[in-house]
Amino acid sequence: MSTIYNEADPYAGSRETTEGRVYTVTGGDWDLTFADPHGEERLVVNMGPQHPSTHGVLRLILDLEGETVTKARVTIGYLHTGIEKNTEYRNWTQGTTFVTRMDYLAPLYNEAAYCMAVEKLLGIEIPQRAATIRVLVMEINRIASHLVGLATGGMELGALTAMTNGFREREMCLDLLEEITGLRMNHAYIRPGGLAQDLPEGAVEHIREFLAVMPKRVADYHRMLTGQPIWQRRLKDVGYLDVTGCLALGVTGPVLRSAGLPWDLRKTEPYLGYETYDFEVPTADTADAWGRYLVRMAEINESLKLIAQALDRLEPGPVMVEDRKIAWPAQLSLGADGMGNSLDHVRHIMGQSMEALIHHFKLVTEGFRVPAGQVYVPIESPRGELGYHVVSDGSTRPWRVHVRDPSFVNLQATAAMSEGGMIADVIAAIASIDPVMGGVDR
Amino acid sequence: MSNDGGEVVPGREEAGYDASTARSGGFRKGAFGVSGSGDTSGFGGLVRVEPGGAVALHSTDRPYGGYFDEVTDALIEAVGEATFAAAVYRVLVDRGEITYFVAREHLLTLVQALRDDDALRFELCSSVSGVDYLDSGGPVATPDRPRLHVVYHLTSMTYRRRIRLEVAVTAEDAHVPSVTGIYPTADWHERETWDMFGIVFDGHPALTRILMPDDWDGHPQRKDYPLGGVPVEYHGATIPPPDTRRAYR
């Protein structure tokens, strides 16, 4: 940055040395920095980035008058890992393992949106079974994500039982995802062209057991929280943002639906066959944290409906495109030692077919080429519109992957939601946005 | 990266390359991205003509199909034919998505009409981001073919439509008017695009870095941003930066 900026910055003066620029934090200049012409009591409180109530590595700078917040500023970037840039130096299939680490509470949505973008660039259509399983795992993921939103939000408000119960049920979701994908989080299960592997034996039964248990647990949440006066008073009329505010600030997802607009991309711009499923888009008309809580709880029920329908329509078939120039050559299978490559496949490439070995090698080391062009693929993640803008220059690697992360956009509403309210309500407001900093900072 | 610029590459004519009709005129040499060393891979003589580079240079002819014609007609009606002709210098329909390439002087007029006109109603600005097309398979970026693109994705919730606007600027004059006055949500998007690509959004209320530290030098997602290698504690070996490693292109 230019030195002009630093000269104007009262916090850090700097001077040039042979070792580079040295910054001096002088301090003691609060009178100069915060000269208050009105003679009012103003207190600037820095909250975070390491703070148990800021929903992640988020820094808030709050101007307070008494307990009232007059100004809320948000600083992000503490979790920036350059994932977008990293994908430009990996092949198209490897991209999945990177993007899944962005919004780590909704990893399967990142994978699905990325893969759908790659598939749109390739102009290919995935098999029906792969599409159904994608819907299945994404809806399990949505439940897990909403439960974490509830659990951490509850914890930040002091409702520790909401936290322990939320994580308990989320664990059931993660167990299912672990059984299906092999990993609890960051699955890299959805791949360009389909899925890494089919559902393992017994997964369908376990999902059905989950479906049998879960409605009772959701009812328990309502018994524990919904009627509870403390919970209500902490959430009602807190973090108010109406539809106009949402659209101006680009806010989507449960926050927008809590303001009364039934905008859900699964209904409005269906993908993966969502138009053939029977489900509702829950809304509320309160436009506050309470409405968002109710919308998320209702969405858990809708996701359970979707999972049941997806299970019913599972037909045997391939889970990867037929084109061997795109489909990953290694067929995974569960060996006696746990996970591993299919012994049949290894035997085939090592002992029978030189061409298969070459093909395997080429596809794994070089990858496939994607025709040049750009696409934007939006899907409805648990937090709103997750959009992937992917550009290809026709090579084996993405030219550019930009992620429109819903947390990043929705977090801009912090000031609008919390200015004029109490400092304790800032926590409830941010928890009701449910941002995931891994997605915000990428 | 893959293009050798003005060098005459044998095999262009043989492969049917025609600069007037090829979408971008991209071509590739070799299987690995190395140059300046001996041809150890044996693929050095390989020349491939790409059907299209990242920057498609043609314009789609009317009718565009779908709702694209309706949107374009409504836009022409809203801003006037003369303004539209001056503002939009190319329209591209590809893979079911429409892209308007916009001259930056007219960006705000266009965006205002897109948001407010009853027949358009693009209420939501989904995303603003940058793309650096430096040496992207296609022709080398030149002043008349600027490398830095700002890409706007607009959504009409009323009509359930999506369009894309693209503004191209050079790295030397990387200025684009800010749309925050029309779409407040563009605030953080534009800050990120400034942070990552060094594109200045004139009129933005506080264009500061957002993901990188305030005192960071350079703009990391530019294609010519130097990438660091990793020193290894073994006989002074290093792992080279990813863009200089041997890799398939």
TrEMBL record, chain A:
| Record text on subunit structure and interactions | NDH-1 is composed of 14 different subunits. Subunits NuoB, C, D, E, F, and G constitute the peripheral sector of the complex.
Classification via SUPFAM superfamilies = HydB/Nqo4-like (SSF56762)
Q: What class of enzyme is it?
A: translocase
Q: What is this protein called?
A: NADH-quinone oxidoreductase subunit D
UniProt keywords, alphabetically: Cell membrane, Membrane, NAD, Quinone, Translocase, Transport
Q: Which InterPro entries match?
A: NADH_Q_OxRdtase_suD, NADH_UbQ_OxRdtase_49kDa_CS, NDH1_su_D/H, NiFe-Hase_large
NCBIfam families, alphabetically?
A: NuoD (TIGR01962), PRK06075.1 (NF004739)
Q: Which GO terms describe its molecular function?
A: NAD binding; NADH dehydrogenase (quinone) (non-electrogenic) activity; quinone binding
* Annotated function: NDH-1 shuttles electrons from NADH, via FMN and iron-sulfur (Fe-S) centers, to quinones in the respiratory chain. The immediate electron acceptor for the enzyme in this species is believed to be a menaquinone. Couples the redox reaction to proton translocation (for every two electrons transferred, four hydrogen ions are translocated across the cytoplasmic membrane), and thus conserves the redox energy in a proton gradient.
TrEMBL record, chain B:
Q: What is its main location?
A: membrane
Keyword annotations for this protein, in alphabetical order, are: Cell membrane, Membrane, NAD, Quinone, Translocase, Transport
Tell me where in this chain the NADH:ubiquinone oxidoreductase 30kDa subunit domain is found.
Answer: 102-229
Q: Which GO terms describe its molecular function?
A: NADH dehydrogenase (quinone) (non-electrogenic) activity; NADH dehydrogenase (ubiquinone) activity; quinone binding
Quaternary structure and partners: NDH-1 is composed of 14 different subunits. Subunits NuoB, C, D, E, F, and G constitute the peripheral sector of the complex.
Its biological purpose: NDH-1 shuttles electrons from NADH, via FMN and iron-sulfur (Fe-S) centers, to quinones in the respiratory chain. The immediate electron acceptor for the enzyme in this species is believed to be a menaquinone. Couples the redox reaction to proton translocation (for every two electrons transferred, four hydrogen ions are translocated across the cytoplasmic membrane), and thus conserves the redox energy in a proton gradient.
Q: What is the name of the protein in this document?
A: NADH-quinone oxidoreductase subunit C
The organism of origin for this protein: Blastococcus mobilis
Q: Which gene encodes it?
A: nuoC
